[in-house]
Amino acid sequence: MKGLLILLCFLTGVLSLFGQDKLVVDGEGEMLNKPLANNFHIAEDPTGKITIEELVEGDVELSFTKMEAPVANLDFTTSNFWVHFEIENKKDKSVFLVLETARPITNLVDLFEVSKDEIVIYRSGDGIPFTEKTQKSSCSCFRLYLPAHTTKEYWLQMGSDGEIISLPMIFWEEAQFNFVSTNKTFFVGIFYGVFLFVAIIYLTFYFILKDKSFLFYVLYVIASALLQFSLDGFTHQYFFPSGGYLTQHSVLVSAGITVLFVLLYSRTYLKVKEYSRKWDAVFTSFAGLVILVTVLSLIPGALYRMSYPIINGMSLISTVFILIAAIVIGRKHKVHPLFISGVTVLIIGAIIFILGNFSVINVPALTQNSLKVSTLIEILCLSIVMAAKYKQLQEEKEEAQARLLTELEGINERLEIQVKERTAQIEHQKHEIEVQNKDILDSIKYAQRIQKAILPSDKKFKSLLPESFVMFRPRDIVSGDFYWIESLTTTTDNPRELIVYATADCTGHGVPGAFVSIVGNNFLNLSKTDREVNTPALALDFLNKGINKSFNTIDSDQMIRDGMDIALCALDLKSMKLQFAGAKNPLYLVRDGKLIVYKADKQPIGYIGMDFKNFTDQEIDLEKGDVLYTFSDGFADQFGGEQGKKYKYKRFKEFLLSISSLPMDEQKKILESEFNDWKEGYEQLDDVLVIGVRI
User: Fold this and answer.
1) Which of 22, 102, 279, 635 has the fewest CB atoms lying closer than 10 Å?
2) What residue spans define the domains of the chain?
3) From CA 20, how far away is CA 82, in angstroms rounded?
4) Which domain of life is it from (predicted)?
């Protein structure tokens, strides 16, 4: 009897040392499709350095202990763990099983199939690229093949970087696994669909109302969805399939962001800042701590490992604090009961989840899904709360609009009275302005008649120069451009009969320009009576002195810089000579298809500078058929065309050259048409004057 006890103790020690458990697959299937962790032994490797080869060869020894719960929870840990077991297939046919091991977010999950000849490795976990997982699934599971009447030996290795390792050890029949996976996929689709729907709806409400509580609520919903997405292993599968740092940190980051936004949402919805600055300071402090811990969790090593329990603890504490704040604030201000209910459900779900992690509650179906279900219920409750707030805001908006409408009606009535009074005043002022405008317009029109009487008539121009045209287009009713023509006989020793004509552009346009043009016209007429004036240059000198004397008298308070640019031509048709003098305005001569430019002096009429020089004459031999053009700057400076640019002198020269062979009256019509087409859609900027003469 004593020997039997010694043998029993020896066998117990051996089993504890090697930890080899056995699963028998027979026709009854009692051990399949349910958590079996409490039927297996587990050993911890704190260093994480033990290899499968060392274990198979017996180079190292591990101390195995039996797991107590159907779903073992190994607390927050950075160790590796080993489970050694065999599977015996007693059936007469081959069997396919699916082994479900640790949670999807476990870093290292490797299964080793050991035989006499080789060691086959099956890989899983989020520490490796998703493509390297043996079973392309978000869960940590392995497909096992067992031929009839065979036994296979396995070693299961698991490792974490600080998170809890949860181990159900479920051996699924393949058909049952596929059925459960399909149902789970359906539920997960509905779960995330609800989150997406809520996020879209309440984001729309935010854009409509611009209320921050809706924005923070949407961000909280999105963060909660991302947290569950990470816990389900989908972040590794779809967002960061390369595994490693990004995948492993996604859980902590999404958890931290979720806590942050639920605090911000609750603070805004409950209007904590309006209720109490102390409570608001606590909310702000919690949010700051969450941000700090979340940032520190990004640093690999001890800080990262410590962040797991801290974030879990802060999640629960923050949620409890929100519930307390809602109850306290609800005593003085109305808080929707579903807000409190939703937060309460979330707390209950979180507590069940945490108690399951510590194996206090050993109901895997409840503990593993409590957080997800409670989050979903909370989101639904809070969605109803936010819908109620939306309705409340709309009602308040409608009430405000109704009050505003009433106020506006009163304002409108008062405004109508004021408008009638003001309209009567405006009508009276309008009548006065119309009378004044009529007087001014009548005066300007009379000035137009005076200017027209002063300017040479078409009949006079044609009688002296039959082959000629004058294109005269004032910008306003009266013009600052003017033209002048006379038949003169010089008072020199050898008198000559001349036809003298001028093309002048006075400073300004409209009434001011017209005044200057009348003065200029008068001085040109006076120059005829001066026996010393016998050339165009002397006439311009006479005109310059007269303009300066008229506009800048000795007792004048201020200098007037008005004057004119002018081209003055004296034709001797008997000798076929032309004398030309110009103040800034040139003369164009077209002969044999070429355009010749005779430049003017670079000083205008009315110039009083110290460097003033007398104007100079240019004598030109004429030939029959020559065409002379003088002009103001109005045509070339006009804006227009497709790009709204100036016409410019280069284009003006080319156009004059192209029409120079045509009859003079036809040239005038073509010039007017060209000007109208160019300025179409634009205002006329200046007076336009072009004179053409054919010899």
Assistant:
1) 22
2) 16-179, 189-401, 452-694
3) 11
4) Bacteria
Structure tokens at 123: 């890989």
Q: Looking at this protein, which amino acid is placed at residue 589?
A: L
Residue whose entry in the numeric block shows the structure tokens 């390369």: 242
Residue 9 has pLDDT above 60, yes or no: no
Asked whether residue 231 carries a pLDDT value surpassing 90, the answer given is no
User: Please, what's the b/e burial string for 537-567 (b: 16 or more CB within 10 A of its CB; e: otherwise)?
Assistant: bbbbbbbbebbbebbeeeeeeeeeebbbbbb
Residue 81, classed as helix, strand or coil, is strand
Instruction: Identify the pLDDT of residue 364.
Output: 65
Q: How far is CA 251 from CA 297, 324, 491, 534, 616, in A?
A: 10, 27, 111, 104, 94
d(CA 270, CA 296): 30
Locate the DSSP E strands across 307-445: none
Which CATH class name applies to 16-179?
mainly beta
Run of H or E residues at 448: helix 364-454
Nearest to 695 by CA among 567, 585, 587: 587
AA identity, residue 421: E
Task: Judge contact between 72 and 166, C-beta under 8 A.
Answer: yes
How far is residue 564 from each of residues 149, 456, 502, 601, 607, measured CA to CA in Å?
A: 121, 19, 12, 13, 9
What are the DSSP calls for 284-323, one per residue?
HHHHHHHHHHHHHTTSTTHHHHHHHHHHHHHHHHHHHHHH
- Catalogue the long-range contacts made by 75-79 (C-beta closer than 8 Å, 24 or more residues apart): 75/164, 75/357, 75/358, 76/162, 76/163, 76/164, 76/305, 76/308, 76/309, 77/160, 77/162, 77/164, 77/165, 78/48, 78/160, 78/161, 78/162, 78/305, 79/44, 79/45, 79/46, 79/48, 79/159, 79/160
Average pLDDT over every residue of 168-179: 90
- Helix 212-231 to helix 364-454 angle (10° resolution) is 140
Yes or no: say if 617 and 537 are a contact pair by the CB < 8 Å rule.
yes
Cβ-proximal residues to 487 (8 Å cutoff; 6+ apart), any chain: 464, 497, 498, 499, 500
- 3-class state of residue 149 by DSSP: coil
Task: Enumerate the H helices of 470-576 as residue ranges.
Answer: 510-527, 536-551
The string of pLDDT tens digits covering residues 498-511 is 999 999 999 877 78
DSSP lists the bridge partners of residue 44 as 81
**Cα-Cα end-to-end distance for the chain:** 153
Total residues found in the chain within this entry: 695
Q: Mention the CATH class of domain 452-694.
A: alpha beta
DSSP letter (8 states) at residue 501: E
How far apart, in whole angstroms, are the C-alpha atoms of residue 124 and residue 326? 44
User: Do the Cβ atoms of 288 and 229 come closer than 8 Å?
Assistant: no
From 103, 230, 113, 99, select the one nearest 158 (Cα to Cα).
Answer: 103
The H-assigned helical ranges of 132-244 are 174-209, 212-231, 234
Pick the CATH number of 189-401 from 3.40.30, 1.20.1070, 2.30.29, 3.30.70: 1.20.1070
Provide the CA 226 distance to its chain's centre, in angstroms: 26
pLDDT above 70 as % of the chain: 93
Backbone torsions φ then ψ of 13, nearest 5 degrees: -65, -40
Give the integer Cα–Cα distance in Å for 591 and 478.
35
**How many other CB atoms sit within 10 Å of the CB of residue 302?**
11
CB 611 within 8 A of CB 601: no
Question: At 8, is the pLDDT very low, low, confident or very high (cuts 50, 70, 90)?
Answer: very low
Return the percentage of the chain with pLDDT > 90, whole number.
Answer: 37
pLDDT digits (tens, 9 = 90+) for 485-541: 999 998 888 889 999 999 999 987 778 878 888 888 888 988 888 888 899 999 999
